[in-house]
Write a structure and sequence with these properties.
Keywords: RNA-binding. The protein has 96 residues and is of the alpha+beta class. It has 3 helices and 4 strands, in the order αβαβαββ. It has a 4-stranded mixed sheet with strand order 1-2-4-3, with helices on both faces.
Length: 96
Amino acid sequence: MLTGKQKRFLRAKAHHLRPIFQVGKDGVNENMITQINEALEKRELIKISILQNCLEDKDEVANDLVNGTDAELVQIIGNNVILYKESMENKQIQLP
């Protein structure tokens, strides 16, 4: 689990990131989970955009993403979800 200080640190780092995935009307599926897992392994911190036509609630989408990827939810801001997962091989972010 992330502490408040760590979440603040990650939010600051994620501020300038662009969303690299979009969740649309189909919601979260297995293929998307696989791709997000690969991206988390490479980058550790990613932003995912939830489109207007997504039928699920953004909290539900965030929950599905966290459960599917075993990542930590850093923040839901507007229609963006920020996820963090420590990389096994490409560790770049040193948490405070």
